[in-house]
Amino acid sequence: MEMHYWAASDNGHLEVVRALLEKGADVNAQGGKYGNALQAASDNGHLEVVRALLEKGADVNAQGGEYGNALQAASKNGHLEVVRALLEKGADVNAQGGYYGNALQAASCNGYLEVVRALLEKGADVNAQGGEYGNALQAASRNGHLEVVRALLEKGADVNAQGGEYGNALQAASHSGHLEVVRALLEKGADVNAQGGEYGNALQAASRSGHLEVGGYYGNALQAASYNRDLEVVRALLEKGADVNAQGGHFGNALQAASRSGHLEVVRALLEKGADVNAQGGFFGNALQAASWNGHLEVVRALLEKGADVNAQGGEYANALQAASSWGHLEVVRALLEKGADVNTQGGEYANDVPSYSSRYDPHFHAHSPPLPPPPHVAPPRPASPRPRTKPSLPNPQPGWNIL
């Protein structure tokens, strides 16, 4: 009977719910995606069903299901009247659990300002930790909800709180290119060089594209923004003192992140601010190898003009020539050779540059194994999540993926 009862609650069939309850359906029965009928009805905004369940003794703070409790489920979808009804019946405004960790983060993530205000008025902890984004401020910043960000800051949200997918709110906003949110956070004292999270710091986040290992995937907000083509965010971070040569993250530094993604204007902006064109570290070892691997000819030329060492060693492919050769970027190969690239340099995945080209493009090279596929132009998307995403997120880059 409970299965029918949950389904009726989920779909808002009030009379069916009442009929099943009269026949003995357990109002607090556990199970299913939502954990219980109250959470199902709350998630879908069925106010009258919520009231009927509460009148029959539904536990307003019952835990379980995807969103942890009914209040978080209602908050996630901005059902203000349901939120109020649950709070009136004693819902714990700071209950932990579920995808978002708490109701405030759920409402903040999805930009429901009135729900955020209602929760704060009832004593929601503005700095509560947990959930996908670590805290409400990071959740709101990630999705560019400026008014929610301001409301949280006015209530004392810690602008430099650590945790969550992006490490801190500034990195989350930088990753997604939300310039006005970045500015609002900086005005409130956000640390432009704070480390942590998927991008390590804000400049790296802005530089990349706007993801996890020690120190953050992008190391810092500048690297994340640089990888994200967010030129204005990059400039804003640099103006606030972001360290253009900060190390860490998947790409080692912002210049490598921007070079990997082919953002010529971001590359130029970083170089103008003193980015070390030969800085070592990260997946590709240096910016020139990153740009060469992805065939970004104009970026390669810009780096060479600024003194990039054409034979610098390190990284996944040992040197830029091998990186370009590995995917057949002929014009990049020519540009590197014109600048004196050593065709016989050893090291890296293919030891030297001739096999790296041949192994992928000579159909007879692998006589007994299937040929490698050409690099796709778009990386596989991340698995769908309950939260809305303003931009698609990229998975960790893998050798041989031509993501951008």
TrEMBL record:
Q: Where is this region: Disordered?
A: 345-404
Q: Which SUPFAM superfamilies match?
A: Ankyrin repeat
Keywords for this protein: ANK repeat, Repeat
Look up the domain of life of the source. Eukaryota
The membrane-spanning stretches of this chain are none
For this protein, the record's InterPro entries field holds: Ankyrin-KH/SAM_domain, Ankyrin_rpt, Ankyrin_rpt-contain_sf
Q: Which Pfam families match?
A: Ank, Ank_2, Ank_4
In which residue ranges is the amino acid composition biased (Pro residues)? 370-386
The ranges of the ANK repeats are 8-32, 33-65, 66-98, 99-131, 132-164, 165-197, 217-249, 250-282, 286-315, 316-348
Cellular component (GO) terms are: cytoplasm
Name recorded for this polypeptide: Uncharacterized protein
Source species: Tetrapyrgos nigripes
